[in-house]
Amino acid sequence: MEGHFIDFSLIGNRVRQARLNKQLTQQELSERCGFTKSLLSKIENGRISVAIASLSKIADNLELPISWFIEQHEEEDLVIVPADKRDVVSERDDMGYSFETLANFSRFSPIEPTIITIDPSLKRVEPYHHKENEFIYILEGKVRLSYDNSIHLMHKNDSAYFKGEKPHIFLPANNDRARVLTIFIRQA
Fold this sequence. Notes:
This protein has 188 residues and is an alpha+beta fold. It has helices spanning 8-21, 26-33, 37-44, 52-62, 66-70; strands at 4-5, 87-89, 98-101, 111-118, 133-140, 143-147, 150-154, 159-163, 168-172, 178-185.
């Protein structure tokens, strides 16, 4: 997959900045997110990659969209992102997916378009949740959408819209890679 790979220190700096803006200590934020202060410290210092599920918990507790933490573009009235210039959070052992930001307009925008790539070797099966509603469109391959304790097989060109507050996760449906256009939609 092409694109610019995110410097995890950028994500860490933004997590720290947002946490301090909310006047929270590392201990307070880590407890709200359900993980250790040590893990949050490592994330803030860019020493480890952050799983999408963990970043989602941080974003929810700091009331910011996930894309704000990984987007490298300045906020403008028009954002055009060529395919070879997309920000990509690459897969690592502790991450479930590759996560590409698209033309995210602003941290204050009610929508966050992204592309999630699911590798067939994905081992992570722990569902996650977030405050945003979510629209998905299968661009390539097949996925098993686990949503609120139900499994739904989805094929290329299938779509779904659901409440992100219910536990969900995309799982590989076979031995092929899958790509999913995901649009997170914040409620007013």
